[in-house]
Amino acid sequence: MLKFIRTVCLLLFNLQLLLAQPVEVYFEQGNRAYSEGKYQDAADLYHKIIEKGVASGEVYFNLGNTYYKLDQIGKTILYYEKAQQYLEGDPALEQNMKLASLKVVDKIEPIPKLFLEEWWNAVTHIFPLTIIAWLSYILFFLIMIFAAFYLLFPKKIFIRAIWIFVTLFVIALSFYLSRIYQFESSKYGVILASKVSVVSEPSLTGSEVFIIHEGTKVAINREIDGWFEISLADGKTGWLKTNDLELI
């Protein structure tokens, strides 16, 4: 029985290696094609990685760079936004996003937020989500350790340490849950068509309320029969066809 389990584990490990090899090959070939100026070939190779179900900040970032070279600003913004979910706070990504945003036609001024909302958003985004998650795990582990020490050696110093770590754990967990809630409850997309007419209702007979252009990021409120209700950062809302944008 033990021999059978080892054989199965070995087969699974070898299968994982076989699946990983093409991904690495595609990534290296994509990077080489990009450095040689073959940008469409590079994009095709990076997409092959995504088609295999591999989500990577580096792949999305490189795709954004590739589409920037191809002057497809909608897809540039789209893949930079996807990369940001994995490479939050990366200086190279932030710089490239600023450069790409200069090519977007629509310059939308966001509605000012309440002070407390801005403060909470700034505080919860001090660290990337992965760091907050690991910090929560470490603090919980320390709480368990000092609780065990207190059970073995009931001293006040251990109680104080437990309260300190519990307080820090609650704060870290609050940050983590807040970020997860924002991620799960917020849905965004990027306009890929050169120009889109946003209408007043989910119908071809709806009257035009405003026009947006390629590369504009929009919030998606709801979906009805092939239509998205979207809103812009300045508060404007309307409807457009689902194939006018791609979800981030």
Q: Portion of residues in helices? A: 55-70%
The CATH architecture of the largest domain can be named as Alpha Horseshoe
Say what the CATH topology of the largest domain is.
Serine Threonine Protein Phosphatase 5, Tetratricopeptide repeat
Radius of gyration: 24 Å
Distance, first to last CA: 47 Å
Mean pLDDT metric: 86
How many domain regions? 3
- The CATH H-level homologous superfamily of the largest domain: Tetratricopeptide repeat domain
The SSE string, one letter per element, is HHHHHHHHEEEEEEE
Shape: globular
Provide structural commentary.
The chain has helices at residues 2-35, 39-51, 57-69, 73-84, 91-101, 115-124, 129-152, 156-185, and strands at residues 188-191, 195-199, 208-213, 217-224, 227-231, 237-241, 245-247. It is an alpha+beta fold and 248 residues long. Strand 5 and strand 6 form a beta hairpin. The longest helix has 34 residues, at 2-35. It starts with a helix and ends with a strand.
How are the SSEs ordered, and which strands pair?
Elements: H1 2-35, H2 39-51, H3 57-69, H4 73-84, H5 91-101, H6 115-124, H7 129-152, H8 156-185, E1 188-191, E2 195-199, E3 208-213, E4 217-224, E5 227-231, E6 237-241, E7 245-247
Antiparallel strand pairs: 1-4, 1-7, 2-3, 4-5, 5-6
Key features of this structure:
248 residues, alpha+beta, Serine Threonine Protein Phosphatase 5, Tetratricopeptide repeat, SH3 type barrels, 3 domains, five-stranded antiparallel sheet, two-stranded antiparallel ribbon, 8 helices, 7 strands, 59% helix, disordered N terminus
